[in-house]
């Protein structure tokens, strides 16, 4: 079987997304720092927090995921991006929409409809791009299932978001507003981010550890269990059955535990014994994600889910989603830059190795400080402790700034 | 040095930048053919099908052979079957990775 080559994306496209996302990360972290008093008193529904949350989720995590997908989808699924020019237009629309949206949420939330629609257009353009790209794949596999379902979850989260706005303005299905809102959050977090990270982990974990000879059969069971948990959770929202919601959280935690076990099985078959430090942090996000899922289940079981959801969500987004993304960015960005700068020089001249592109050891203090900061902030929200919040968030912001500097400094190599 | 040895020796210049080990010691070169005078056909694989360095390594191999005066035409066939396994690595490469 001959393999198809020339799948690489124009380097500028993923880089635009990643560089933009770094600015959003710093902006979101700074906004959270300056609104500490609202956060520790659990007043999340204030304009600045909404702005920071959307800047973080849409500007940082979503834009990074989009940039990474523009680079990873062609190499992982062995199919070129459907239309690169469309990708650049999609970046412009989405980036403008997100900045405008965050600005409107901060200054005048009532006027956020137009920028929300622009952002929505950008995300829908991305979904079209990915749909058209993935349908060209010759042989869909279990990774297509994870990534495809993650994309469908993102689309569902958007459609539910539109339904919420429509419901607020017209009163349509107002009885189900809470169920729609909860489903919107569930699909946007567990459906989109978790399934996407699961899917790409199945490619990147064996690749960066050089694991071979492991079975991929458990992956479809991981998918089935986790997707069943998502379906049960949505059903519990619409039937308003708390016991079903607890069962759904148990299934989701079970699916996550199954994924963790499968990752361990893969890592046990690795050839590369000494793993890169930044990659270890991406791996560390897996037990963190498992602990958060188990924590959510236990809180629901003990009747404390409502009071715990704020810091559970905060820890989920930062210790599972952000730590995974940061750990992998330490690997992906040098790959991208090396490919652009040196791929044509390979074997012609002496070229640096990927290790020379980034100081991998720097990930230890930076990501450790990031984790410590997030844990401090999470505890400070639980105990409503302002001083702990401020010191924790200053640490998180500082670590984010140094992280961005390290990523950008690769471009000088 | 026969043509195959010459090609293999020259291919040791092509390094996998992630592992910092050359493609020969990694066991990525499956076969070398010389169907016509001045033509070399390399059949090779990569450690994983979704390797982001896919095109870079293949073009590195191509250039490396084109650089030899004995060959005017080079064809590189990238295959996934049979899949690469760690057993294909030389003991030196194995030692480097296993530390």
What report would you give on this structure?
The complex is a heterodimer of chains A (413) and B (99). By secondary structure, chain A is an all-alpha fold. Chain A has a domain at 8-139. Helix content of chain A is 79%, strand content 0%. Chain A has 14 helices and no strands. Chain A has helices at residues 12-34, 36-40, 47-76, 84-107, 113-134, 142-170, 177-209, 217-239, 242-268, 277-301, 305-342, 354-357, 363-383, 386-409. In chain A, helix 8 packs antiparallel against helix 9 (242-268). Chain B has helices spanning 3-11, 54-66, 91-98; strands at 15-16, 21-22, 29-33, 39-44, 73-78. Chain B is globular, with a radius of gyration of 13 Å. In chain B, the strands form 2 sheets. In chain B, strands 3-4-5 form a 3-stranded mixed sheet, covered by helices on one side. The mean pLDDT of chain B is 90. Chain B has 99 residues and is α+β, with helices and mostly antiparallel strands. Chain B has a single domain (3-85), classed as GMP Synthetase, Chain A, domain 3. The A-B interface holds A 1-3, 5-8, 71-72, 75-78, 203, 206-208, 210, 212-213, 271-274, 335, 338-339, 342-344, 346-348, 351-355 and B 13-15, 17-20, 47-61, 63-64, 67, 77-81, 84-86, 89, 94, 97-99. Chain B: It comes from Cytobacillus oceanisediminis. Chain B: It holds the Pfam family FeS_assembly_P. Chain B: InterPro entries: Fe-S_Maturation_MIP18 (IPR052339), FSCA_dom_sf (IPR034904), MIP18-like (IPR002744).
Give the helix/strand layout:
The complex is a heterodimer of chains A (413) and B (99).
Chain A: H1 12-34, H2 36-40, H3 47-76, H4 84-107, H5 113-134, H6 142-170, H7 177-209, H8 217-239, H9 242-268, H10 277-301, H11 305-342, H12 354-357, H13 363-383, H14 386-409
Helix pairs in contact in A: 1-3, 1-4, 1-14, 3-4, 3-11, 4-5, 5-6, 6-7, 7-8, 7-9, 7-11, 8-9, 9-10, 10-11, 11-13, 13-14
Chain B: H1 3-11, E1 15-16, E2 21-22, E3 29-33, E4 39-44, H2 54-66, E5 73-78, H3 91-98
Parallel strand pairs in B: 4-5
Antiparallel strand pairs in B: 1-2, 3-4
